[in-house]
Amino acid sequence: QVQLVESGGGLVQAGGSLRLSCAASGSIFSINAMGWFRQAPGKEREFVAAINWSGSTSTYADSVKGRFTISRDNAKNTRYLQMNSLKPEDTAVYYCAAGRGYGGSDEWRYNYWGQGTQVTVSS
Prior knowledge:
By secondary structure, the chain is mainly beta. Helices cover 0% and strands 52% of the residues. The protein has strands at 2-7, 10-13, 18-26, 33-39, 46-52, 58-60, 68-73, 78-83, 92-99, 112-113, 117-122. The strands form two sheets. Strands 2, 4, 5, 6, 9, 10 and 11 form a seven-stranded mixed beta sheet that branches. A four-stranded antiparallel beta sheet has the order 1-3-8-7, with no helix packed on it. The mean pLDDT is 94.
């Protein structure tokens, strides 16, 4: 089993920045990829970004490209999502996910999920 704990959410004004953290524990040797997803009120959960465990490959949703950056700290078993130039439409609950196989943008590829952290961007 893998446990994921997100942190770093909060309230920020449009144009501001936040950094989300996702700390992994447990059977982390089984993880090959980690991703971030988000769910806005009344909407389905959507893909934001993903990175493989080595950090050699990352992918982003078009809506966040150039503004969000996913990174890793393997020594701390932690992945980060740096969010810059935030917009009100980025308001959502952000979820960290970990998968044993290839990650990417499909939710079904991820085996473990965190509890989510709220990000609210005011206009």
